[in-house]
Amino acid sequence: xxxxxxxxxxxxxxxxALATAAFALTFWAWNLIGPLSKxxxxxxxxxxxxxxxxxxxxxxxxxxxxxxxxxxxxxxxxRVMLTAACFVSVLPVLMVGLSGNSYAALxxxxxxxxxxxxxxxxxxxxxxxxxxxxxxxxxxxxxxxGMGGTALSAFLTPRLVDGVGxxxxxxxxxxxxxxxxxxxxxxxxxxxxxxxxxxxxxPRLRAVAKLKVTWQMSLLYAVAFGGFVAFSTxxxxxxVSAYDLAQTxxxxxxxGFSLAAVIARPAGGILSDKVGPLKICLVSFFxxxxxxxxxxxxxxxxxxxxxxxVLMALFLxxxxxxxxxxxxxxVDPARVGGVTGIVGAAGGLGGYFxxxxxxxxxxxxxxxxxxxxxxxxxxxxxxxxxFANFRTRRAAAD
Length: 398
Description:
Number of helices: 18
Order of helices and strands: HHHHHHHHHHHHHHHHHH
CATH architecture: Up-down Bundle
CATH class: Mainly Alpha
Number of domains: 1
Structural class: mainly alpha
Helix content: over 70%
């Protein structure tokens, strides 16, 4: 065994754990507004469309910001960028905590809060470099479990606000982000074989944008991860309005949804290493389509609806793990950061529009049926696209 291989073996687990923890915390920060949507709606007198816009706004910057974050990670490495992701999230979190009395201020601070969501595009190339190709499905799947930060937010944020107040809840998050940034800077290390890519950012971005596989993966991830983001941010609002639950009860159920997806994501990566990512993606998309149809008719709580929401989370979680196992299989390691940035942005944007659509549909019809049926149709079509384009495993570097 070479020296480099020994170093990788020793440092891989620690750095994967650090990246996952940082991802989970920044994702909690990214999702601070959604679990409090009822509070903001009641305090500010918002209609369903205004509420959905407020909930979706952080997703926008978190999505688009992943493109430069991925490019910068190729250049400066995960250690620097994970640290930066934690530190730059502090100010927007503080702004959100101080903006509870103004809808306009919440929109602005929520827009900036999206910076916390860029950490995903940092962590994927960082953990990829620590693992051999045969283990990258595992690595990206475990790292992706950090999206459980949304479950922590759904469960804990409303309770913290009830216990210590809105401002103190956000101050505690600021302190946690600073501490995590210091931990990443002190203990995280780039893989021994990682080398910075010094090429100018724009040419590199254009180069990865010309790859057909970049846009194919973007479509898949927009449905798999976008569906997860849409549900994890908007589900508290949906459960309150459709099932008349209290905010804490809706948060508990949303936490369960997110936890199921979190468990499924590393499973999707590990299973992709064993049976291939194509099969995992197909199960994800077709399964999500079936669940969306069943949920469209608002089945009663708890057993029918609860079971269907959990199964939806499991299918989407499997897909998020499967898609990035496919990315690791098809993309040259030197370009993973750039491709991840664009694919991650597509996933975030995939989670931005559904809450807006759901709010508009609910305001117009008093039900979510049309929005969920549109989700079912989208997942079905993307499943067919996936089978048609990847069944021979040849897409890639065209």
